[in-house]
Amino acid sequence: MCTDRKLVRYVPWAGKRGMLPHQRYRGVLGQIEYDNWLKMPLDVSDVAPAANAEGYFSTAPSTAQRIEPPPVQTKHLKPIYVDDHIIVVNKPSGVLSVPGPRRHECVASLVYRYFGKGHAHPRDAGISEQAEENEPWQPLTTGDNKEVDTMIVHRLDRDTSGVLMFARNDDALKRLHLDFKDKMRKRVSKRYVALVCGHWNQNGGMGGMVADEGEIDLPLVRDIDRPPFMCIATAETELRQQKVKEQPRSNTEGKRRQHAGFLRMVGKGAKPSLTEYRILSYEYLVDETGVLEDAPRLLPVTRVELTPITGRTHQLRVHCAASGHPIVGDSIYGRHGEGSPRGGLILEEPGGGASLDVQERISEYWTRRLQRNSDAKDEECMLCLHACQLSIFHPFTESPMLFECPPPF
After folding, report:
1. Are 97 and 155 contacting, i.e. CB atoms less than 8 angstroms apart?
2. Is a pLDDT exceeding 70 seen at residue 266?
3. pLDDT at residue 306 tops 60
4. Closest Cα to residue 309, out of 195, 388, 219, 197?
5. Cα-flanking dihedrals φ and ψ of residue 275, to 5°?
6. Closest Cα partner for 135 from 45, 48, 44, 72?
7. Distance set, CA 170 to CA 84, 147, 166, 394 (Å)
8. pLDDT, tens digit, for every residue of 80-128?
9. What was the pLDDT predicted at 258?
10. Under a CB-based contact definition with an 8 Å cutoff, are residues 334 and 326 in contact?
11. Are 33 and 7 spatial neighbours (Cβ–Cβ below 8 Å)?
12. CA 370, CA 222: separation in Å to the nearest integer?
């Protein structure tokens, strides 16, 4: 790691669970601090190098009224830290972390285009210079796509914002993958902040969730009726999984169900999932359109800190939904979402959590807010879930490091 560069900043810090990061990086770097690392000129003033932002709000009829994200643009590159081994960025909401099988433009490809894999990487590297304003970027080559894939350490959901890390060489990738996968060694710590519907802890909540801090210990499994989404694993979901596997191929529905990819998805079974939560504050969203007795309507929300002990798909979103407090802006597990209501959890005594009326009003308010910002072509937080902190040990120096970025909500 090149500690002589001005972008390296040292401050004392003491973490929890035995982690003592002595290097702390907070917020996004100014461009002057990372200019020397760029292999391609960066102009953050461009409006839309990939495409224009029309269609940001989907007008197609949909119960959940999902919002379509804007295309990836240069302004979405927000580095927190850069050296020869790792790159850490603040990923905006609504932008893909990784390209996926269809090779979409994403934060990973954006990082590769402008920083490359390794600082010694030549400027041209088979990638054209900055395109003219509003002109599409040239597609990455097959070789470039392979390089992008070997930079991916972990990922965040499309609508989740926050701290995201990439590796710049194969050794760093290997070491970081081991650290992220081995939960017992506790070499990686992640922390999120979320805004959830209702005042958590004041409405009864789910089960034992009546304290200002605690744990949500609910196993997760693929939702058979709504793949690839997740739901809470119960005896019923286990029984249904078994029936799907045993379904005769002669049945038309059975043939569809027996698709190899589908069987692999549902055949993994339930996995233990544990989330620690801590209530930070009780707040209100001010709905100017919902005037009540000549005053704006106040919509109750709770700011909560979430620490995933396990790392399951959509874990935090499903756990919050199961508690009766879905995350604000969640088009999958929130009100009228595409996933199972309340994360598929069926309570013996219905109730607790935010009322359906509160969830409905917050959902309508958030949709209107996204529409307004879409019309103004402003960036907007699509989902109020933000990866605010990531602690690691540097893959080359073994120095403990902590990266932070405040939430946009």
Report:
1. yes
2. no
3. yes
4. 219
5. -130, 130
6. 48
7. 12, 10, 11, 14
8. 999 999 999 999 999 999 998 888 889 999 999 989 887 544 444 434 4
9. 56
10. yes
11. yes
12. 29
Beta bridge partner(s), residue 147 = none
- The first and second tokens of residue 138, run together, are 């040239």
- Looking at the DSSP bridge assignments, the partners of residue 69 are none
Residue 261 gets which letter from DSSP? H
Cβ atoms of residues 393 and 179 within 8 Å: yes
HEC-encoded secondary structure of 337-367: CCCCHHHHCCCCCCCCCCCHHHHHHHHHHHH
Section 24-34 average pLDDT: 81
* Radius of gyration of the chain from its Cα atoms, rounded to whole angstroms: 22
Tell me: cis bond preceding 136? Omega within 30 of 0 counts.
no
Lookup result for tokens 């990487």: 121
What single string gives the DSSP state of each residue in 156-168?
--TT-EEEEEEES
- At residue 183, φ and ψ (nearest 5 deg) are -70, -25
Hey, what are 393's tokens? 């040990």
**Per-residue pLDDT, 267:** 64
Amino acid at 306: L
What's residue 3's pLDDT? 38
Taking the alpha carbons at both ends of the chain, their separation in whole angstroms is: 33
pLDDT tens digits for 223-240? Answer: 888 888 999 998 888 888
| Residue of 363, 378, 374, 287 whose CA lies nearest to 62 | 363
Q: Tell whether the torsion through CA atoms of 215, 399, 8 and 20 is positive or negative.
A: positive
Question: Could you tell me how far CA 242 lies from the centroid of its own chain?
Answer: 31
Instruction: Kindly write down the DSSP assignment for every residue of 102-159, as one continuous string.
Output: TT---HHHHHHHHH-SSTTS-S-TT-PPPPPTTPPPPPPPHHHHHHHHTTB-----TT
Question: Which tokens is 173 given?
Answer: 């990738």
Give the mean pLDDT of the chain.
78
Two tokens, residue 297: 């309507």
Q: What are phi and psi of 408, to 5 degrees?
A: -85, 5
CA distances from residue 60 to 63, 68, 149 in whole angstroms, order as listed: 10, 10, 33
Residue 228 to residue 183: CA distance in whole angstroms: 25
Helix 107-115 to helix 142-149 angle (10° resolution) is 110
